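input
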Amino acid sequence: GSRYAVIVRKGTINYEGVGALYLEGKLVPGTDGAMDITFSPDGKHYALRCKNAEARTFFMVIDGKAGTEYQGVAEKVSWSPDSTKAIYQISNSGRNFVVVNNTEEFGTGLVGSLTRDPIVFATTGSRYAFSSIDGSNRNFLTIVDGKNVLPAGFSPIGDTLDFSDDGSRYAMMMNVAGRNDSGGLLIDGTLNNDLSPGLFGGTNWMNP
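output
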């Protein structure tokens, strides 16, 4: 597409430069403290990370609507392929959260990945998933479309979570919580010990 954005410095607060967003040449109200911006895959939506320099807090503006202010907001914004969901991570009062569309908050431990974006989407549509690990307290989560699907007593192997190509199904490998013993496969929310891990993706998404 041809949409463009520019962050222009407007002034200084607490010895810190404060910018604002100009979208296609027009000032967007309520974007004082603008830091960085990402567009959705279709170019029709945007997420703008901002800082309240006076309060020293951060917030996200999505399509002109500001979300809650937090002590920290991660720069990375993950967009669903259909551009309907913007997901990002925040920290506040010593706790971590994943926020969806500035409206849903999920308390988490560590949400990360060494190999890919920890927020996983189906190839098409808006289905999403992520896993959270807090090993010290043995608190584990796997959120799929806003619901925790991880069975009690198990920990997720987050980098194995994947959706089928059409987005209708998902699968993930698990361990027994607190141990490295395999806990089997979680398939569409159901624990299955009769299947061994195969290739996730394409026509061989999972193999018996």
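quick obs: The CA atoms of residues 8 and 75 lie 18 Å apart.
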